[in-house]
């Protein structure tokens, strides 16, 4: 059963939100912030726009930190954070994230990546472009498992779906990526500036 | 997927296990069966290798994005802190609780702490050997220890040349596995089996060893694969008069690529070691070992000195001809 990141238990025990010692609260914030880099990386490839990605991460952190009371009892904070991000992402899709959309994601990421070798970069660019073609449900699973190293069970918790659904999405996603990045398909994905 | 093979484990290998293999999450007891299936089912092998390339690509993207992902821009930090401040202030106003500013300041301090928290991943350099690995007897001489020693790099060529001398019309070539991240660790002649055989060793960047045993048998046979072990896996096959056994970490799907590289490389292309190049007197069966190495037990394969390229029997052995590689024999499962 996935956690509900929006459950604010602090409402019934307001003093606990801020009643912790300085040391306690510092560790709480640090604990969340340890996962910021993973959230940003995941959000960037999930959303495909660094501004939207940072908005998503920011919103996620605000919700989680502001509702610290509810997640202090969470055993796996990383999964909890990704769950929150997932819910915001799904909600954002419903509200249609304000996509800039004028610059291809592979070009954006090219500016963010440490300079790879040229041959590497061609492959990576194709992979990044192919990821954006995947349905978001498949993209989420491929990234959670392949990029962030979550277990299938963790991914299922994050997404709020059974493990079997994670496996089927993973399979379809990887097969789609295989087709998209195979010889002859990559040219279709490449963006010529 | 291969639907046929009575000799494969196909019927018991499902799609989720292929993914679990790629993701390193397949339980040890199933690895051998899935690897065996992949060695025979080319379609599934191609898919698994494509998924592995995807994972490798994602890992490179992840590494390339480190600087981006870890650097929260100052303005973003401030915006985040301001937003958290506002949220908490609103709640505090409702609840009449003070102390929010300090919490937000500590949040900002947390960003600095994150920087300090980050560290370089520890790179394992130790080679962890499994004291003994059961290998089918034919033709390598029964249970072979993953010996604590491998011979220097140059002995790979001489070992293979010695083996090639037992072939009349075939050359042997050292497979080039550098593309798979494997660097040569040495080679040795095995003289306890029923046929001429050699062992060639490589190590990966984590110090995990991959051994290739190659022997010459007297008659042709169909290619066949068998596998044993859990933490280590031994893949066996025959091709013409050559019989092979590859031993490496079971959790590593790269072994399949090693097999393919060996099959593609040892009989064609690459460095050629012609048959008869090392012909001459049979190797001295006297074991060569480092001074600190214990005397080999019955389970330790005898390591025969190799004939030198130019003068097989005349040159003395080098002062330190053996490279000790085994570091921790008490953790064989960590391979």
Write the CATH homologous superfamily of chain A: PhyR, sigma-like (SL) domain
Counted by DSSP, the helix tally of chain B is 9
Q: Report mean pLDDT of chain A, rounded to a whole number.
A: 72
Basic shape of chain B: elongated
Distance between the termini of chain B: 30 Å
Helix content of chain B: 25-40%
Number of helices in the DSSP assignment of chain A: 12
Gyration radius from CA atoms of chain B, angstroms = 27 Å
Largest sheet of chain A: none
N-to-C order of helices and strands of chain B? HHHHHHHEHEEEEEEEHEEE
Name the helicity range of chain A. 55-70%
Structural class of chain B: alpha+beta
Which strand order spans the largest sheet of chain B, edge to edge or round the barrel? 6-7-8-5-4-3-10
Q: What's the structural domain tally of chain A?
A: 1
- As for the CATH topology of chain A, it is Butyryl-CoA Dehydrogenase, subunit A, domain 3
Give the SSE order of chain A as H and E letters. Answer: HHHHHHHHHHHH
Shape field of chain A: globular
What's the rounded overall pLDDT mean of chain B?
58
Distance between the termini of chain A: 46 Å
Structural class of chain A, by secondary structure, is mainly alpha
Question: How many strand units of chain B?
Answer: 11
Structure description:
The complex is a heterodimer of chains A (193) and B (335). By secondary structure, chain A is mostly helical. Chain A has a single domain, classed as PhyR, sigma-like (SL) domain (Butyryl-CoA Dehydrogenase, subunit A, domain 3), CATH 1.20.140.160. Chain A has helices at residues 15-18, 22-33, 36-47, 50-66, 68-71, 77-94, 105-112, 118-133, 136-146, 152-159, 163-181, 186-189. In chain A, helix 3 crosses helix 4 (50-66) and helix 4 (50-66) crosses helix 6. The longest helix of chain A is centred in the last third of the chain and has 19 residues, at 163-181. The radius of gyration of chain A is 18 Å and the shape is globular. In chain B, 35% of the residues lie in helices and 16% in strands. Chain B contains nine helices and eleven strands. In chain B, helix 1 (15-22) packs parallel to helix 3 and helix 5 (74-95) runs antiparallel to helix 6 (100-117). The longest helix of chain B is centred in the N-terminal third of the chain and has 23 residues, at 42-64. At the A-B interface, helix 1, helix 2, helix 3, helix 4 and helix 8 of A face helix 1, helix 3, helix 4, helix 5 and helix 6 of B.
